[in-house]
Design a protein that fits this description.
Two copies of one chain form a homodimer.
Chain A: H1 2-6, E1 17-18, H2 33-46, E2 55-56, H3 59-66, H4 70-82, E3 86-89, E4 93-96, H5 127-132, H6 159-172, H7 175-178, H8 187-201, E5 210-213, H9 215-227, E6 233-238, H10 242-250, E7 254-261, E8 264-265, H11 267-273, E9 279-282, H12 296-309, E10 312-316, H13 332-335, E11 341-346, E12 358-361, H14 367-378, H15 383-394, H16 397-423, E13 428-431, E14 438-443, H17 449-458, E15 464-465, E16 478-482, H18 488-506
Parallel strand pairs in A: 1-2, 6-7, 6-9, 9-10, 10-11
Antiparallel strand pairs in A: 3-4, 5-12, 7-8, 11-12, 13-14, 14-16, 15-16
Helix pairs in contact in A: 2-4, 3-4, 6-15, 8-15, 9-10, 9-14, 16-18
């Protein structure tokens, strides 16, 4: 295209007048003709083919040369005059502006139809940007397939109830709710969440302490920015949740992997590796991804550690609504109300991830700092879905849905457990099935879990290799298997597929 | 309450049995009785009033002592056993667990009804958290009053059209759209935005380069995190947009205020103050808050500067849809498609801020870095409103609304201008009225603009003092006046109020 344009005919007459070739105008383009003409003249000015002070052909002759209407020419010229490329001199005609900085003229630019590119310049980004590039996850979201982890039962969503709540919210939103507002989110939804946490999780907190955020990912990110200075150490569970690691990297933290054992985070190991960590990220209700519950003893020890060292505990309670066996333990945040715990919850599992609503509960004296950090990040959450969700919570619809899903997920978890026990008892050992939307199948195999997951994906079964959740050399091999979103038949079929892939191991 | 509890009766019988006082149970509390009982026993265990190994009274006698049902007692005890506070020994009864870490017992904790507080520990937060605390803006959002800046015409929102789009989106969202997805946002909305930018702003870009974000605040924050390392210098307009400063502080930047003149940012001043700035933040279409348009010459010089130094330009085009006089200039991002420009736009002005939707257009080679940074921040935008907005854009409703609002805002701007010209010509000089939702009234007054704004607020008129937008000593005094959201009568009444406040100046 560049070559094409450089051979363009230029008609200079005795008065220095300049014409424009018709060949580049395309009547079938979605871009209006006058803007195409504008592009052409602008390029010629910027690239020096139309020199400063030269006079443009009259609009009448340009229109005739180009076989376009005179209005098209006038619109293009008017725009170029408005932008300073051209100047109209009364009675004398239209001239290429003499006001342009000379050093810019003559530097070739690409055609406006070429995508933006920083040419001749290495794309210098921030260090964290370079690291986070690995988390971009573009193109990694194909259609939902069994046994994708993390997905709730989309086909069981109370769409009608949700739709009614959204419609009611649309009718009742007042102007103030459409405007800039409290960075913590709507008071009404915060009040509903406080009440929800009191009754479901035994967590006493006030609406003042609650932030409505865009899912647990944003909750973790805000906590990281509020509490961590660049270079600070953060304990993360090994293996552990990938999104949390991205959030801490985003805040400049140094990640310290701390192994998890049967009772949860191995506190002693953490103490040895980084005694002065600023923050510890834990999933005590249902460790992600392994699924164990942190024991009460470990919980109390962790709180004692944080009190002693002045560290913070970030407790991610992402799926505790779905416990099938045993009663849930009180969250760290509820265990000892004076403790330095920031609590994170989400509606991604109880409703759906695309809702992008979750919440933070922060100690009172951190509220202003978190509000400032939230303001800087994205100001406030969206109005409509906050009100709709508050309505669902106030009339009990949400709790009813959770109760129904708990029973459903329990059945689906059982089906997955049975299918694995029947066909793969010696190869895949399930763990973490007391709660949540996924289990981990620990592999007794010499093949890498990454390779097995890739083969499974080729056969239509979506799993995540356990090794992906490790920062250091994996100490276990396995597959993270989601069951919540899939019908029993689909779960059984997926296990049969895994059986075929793993069969060589059995023989 | 602490005192109250410490005087609580404890009944120890010969077997070491322990009872619980009824006085603390409240049948009218929203917290169920069994959880109240659970709270009491747990506190007693943690505070050492029930010592490890001691036996609890039988459920029957506890129920009778407390005048509650035996089921209430059993539920509380069951929960405490599950959490490890109590142990059931077959045939022997229920005992306080001996497994608790001894160093934690005896440490007093607050009643669970007391809000979370990190006691005996200074709330150590990050440095940026401490600075951002000043931006928390909690409690600064009263009801909408004239002449609040930044608010669009809420009473003119196409609520029915929007409602229909939301309903249609609700009906048509498929499971994949409810799931975790591309961090850039929905392809459908990105395609609609690309087409919108082509036709309205002459900006050629592809859907690949577009990120749907939670308003321009998130757009600026993501760009800051993707491009700025802690300690890097960033040029910000002086006076300039407060939210952008918060976003840069959040990424660890050092802010370098660069004055704006009649032609926009004083580039030469910036070069002198910080020749190696990593990024410059500009509002070329309609400087915020002063309202001038950056000249073409300045635009080209700015691009040349960025190319030469390897710096980035962050162009915030927040209200360019509403230009009343002259044609809009092409944005920097469109001026020279190969230039290092990140473009920011928002739907907060063309629809409403509570929608929390805006967009970023980034050079292609930055897409992965921005995607990683976005993943770390909040993963992806919400499904429902993205689809609803795409529907509004595809059928032309949005452009029709913009066109209608452009005419309306022009009228309202004119009314404000006339009212000020009639009553306050010598005191308030309006500037920036060629576009947007606000103007600045420059004050010729010896009183501080902060004081005048405070007095106006007392009289029901909401303005922002121009001095708030300066980082260094303000070089101008004035009031930012929003007109878009208010009927002509309300605008005139607000100007009369300002007239009364400023009258002493005139005499």
């Amino acid at each position: 295209m560049q070559d094409d344009r450089s051979t363009r005919r230029q008609s200079h007459n005795g008065l220095g007048e300049v014409g424009v070739p018709a060949s580049k105008l395309d009547g079938n383009s979605p871009r209006p003709l006058y803007l195409q003409l504008y592009d052409l003249i602008r390029c010629d000015v910027l690239e020096g083919r139309l020199s400063p002070g030269s006079r443009l052909s009259s609009s009448r002759s340009l229109a005739s040369d180009l076989s376009v209407s005179r209005n098209t020419v006038l619109s293009a010229v008017e725009q170029l005059v408005a932008e300073g490329y051209l100047e109209s001199r009364l009675g004398a005609g239209t001239f290429v502006s003499t006001e342009l900085p000379e050093d810019l003229l003559g530097s070739p630019i690409e055609s406006p139809s070429v995508p933006l590119q920083a040419k001749g310049q290495s794309a210098r980004t921030s260090q964290r940007g370079q690291v986070l590039r690995a988390f971009s996850s573009i193109g990694t979201h194909p259609v939902l397939r069994p046994l994708q982890a993390g997905a709730p039962a989309y086909d069981e969503l109370p769409r009608e109830t949700w739709g009614r709540a959204v419609s009611r919210a649309l009718r009742t939103l007042v102007d103030d709710q459409l405007d800039y507002a409290d960075p913590r989110g709507s008071l009404r939804l915060r009040t509903a969440v406080a009440s929800h946490l009191r009754s479901l999780r035994g967590l006493n907190c006030s609406s003042e302490q609650i932030f409505i955020v865009g899912g647990s990912q944003q909750a973790i990110g805000l906590a990281a920015h509020a509490l961590i200075d660049p270079g600070d150490q953060v304990w993360v569970e090994e293996p552990g949740y990938i999104g949390a690691k991205a959030a801490f990297i985003g805040a400049g933290a140094r990640l310290v992997p701390v192994p998890v054992g049967d009772h949860g985070l191995e506190l002693e190991e953490g103490r040895q590796r980084a005694p002065h960590a600023r923050l510890v990220y834990v999933t005590p209700s249902h460790q992600y991804p392994l699924g164990m519950t942190m024991s009460l003893r470990r919980r109390l020890e962790l709180i004692a550690w944080a009190r002693r060292t002045g560290g913070w505990i970030l407790e991610d309670d992402y799926d505790s609504e779905f416990r099938f066996a045993g009663r849930p333990l009180a969250p760290l945040a509820a265990l000892d109300p004076g403790s330095p715990v920031i609590y994170v919850g989400t509606f991604s599992k109880v409703l759906f991830p695309g809702l992008r609503l979750g919440y933070l509960v922060v100690p009172l004296e951190l509220v202003e700092v978190f509000a400032g950090v939230r303001f800087a990040a994205d100001r406030q959450p969206p109005s409509l879905e906050q009100l709709a969700l508050a309505l669902l919570m106030e009339d009990g619809s949400l709790v009813r849905h959770i109760r129904r899903m708990r029973a459903l997920y329990h059945r689906r978890s059982t089906v997955l457990g049975q299918a694995v026990a029947e066909s793969l008892p010696d190869v895949l050992q399930l763990t973490g099935s007391a709660a949540g939307l996924h289990v981990v199948g620990l592999l007794r195999s010499s093949r890498s879990d990454t390779e097995i997951a890739a083969t499974a994906a080729e056969h239509g079964v979506s799993t995540v290799a356990l090794s992906r959740y490790f920062l250091e050399a994996p100490t276990a091999s396995g597959l993270v298997l989601g069951f919540a979103a899939f019908e029993e038949r689909a779960i059984r079929a997926a296990v049969r597929t895994l059986d075929q892939i793993l069969r060589p191991e059995k023989e």
